[in-house]
Amino acid sequence: MSAKPSISVAAFLVVANFATTSALAQWTVTNLNPAGATQSFSNAASGSQQAGFAVVGSVYRASLWSSTAASWVDLHPAGAAQSFANAASGGQQAGSAYVNDAFRASLWSGTAASWVDLSPVGASSSVANAASGGQQAGSAVVGGVSRASLWSGTAASWIDLHPTGASSSVVNAASAGQQAGSAMVGGMVRASLWSGTATSWVDLHPAAATNSIVYGVSGGQQAGYAVVGGVNHASLWSGTATSWVDLNPAGASESVAYAASDGQQVGYATLGGVIRAGLWSGSAASWVDLSAFLPSGFGYTLATGISSDGTNLYVTGFGFNGATSREEALLWTQPIPTPGAAALLGLGGLMATRRRR
Fold first, then answer.
1. What is the pTM of this model?
2. Is the dihedral of CA 264, 304, 160, 150 positive or negative?
3. Where are the domains of the chain?
4. Cβ distance 69 to 32 under 8 Å?
5. What is the pLDDT of residues 288-301, one digit of tens each?
6. How far apart are CA 87 and CA 42, in angstroms?
7. pLDDT band per the 50, 70, 90 thresholds, residue 17
8. What is the dihedral of CA 254, 260, 261, 266, to 10 degrees?
């Protein structure tokens, strides 16, 4: 007769089963399209906040939400013709505003009046695509060249990250002192990673790809896509070109990862000719179709941001609502199981098993 598992092993098995069940739990979806908006898009998430833009009165307006449509905050700065929020981090939002006939990298702290113009002296245009730890990252066009850029809250703090030998470069994501995006080198777009200086540039471009771009970075991992055999494949890296992981799900004709957080990635995969928002956990086989949790009537959907507030996991993005014939900002929410509750459930299951024996 085989030996009974020890208490610690049995408890672990029950806890592991609980964690797996929770990971597959139903998501809830919130439509973030604010009253009066004819379109809306959420581009980023930070904690329980989301950032993007809404079209109101035919004007694109940088926007901030706190997980409901009614929480919408109009970040559009006075004097701007258009504005867009592309990133969120720690109560700050970053993006761009069209002011004085040029797009200008922009920073907000939760209100329209808090707007800061980050565009450096000499730049003809600029955009902030990322925010992390009081820093903002994106690109600035200087001398006709798009140059990967880093700021620390002011235009004067601008750092040129443009690597030697590149004809253009851009940062799309930032986290914990790292910046990620792409650089055009030798006529090829190459996924790229920086650590605060131009000389820190790392070429992430996988050998099998013709082009590659990073859109998300978190915990030493980078997410984006690589063009393999002429097809976009959602991709994951861990700081080197050789670490490349192909995330393209089985049956998908193409895919892209747009954001990353705590070992998970979000973006989209095209299956059956339909673009579907999705979530990965580090492998192609882990892909979850988030469009399956939407009400009927939605067409294509994309997931563009992922975050957590310790209680819930938030995935934000947008989709085409057939009922209203427009794109609308969306938020997927899933509760995060607490370790204490999982352990308690595991011990309860263990004791019940022992009583039956």
1. 0.88
2. negative
3. 161-293
4. yes
5. 999 999 999 999 99
6. 10
7. very low
8. -30
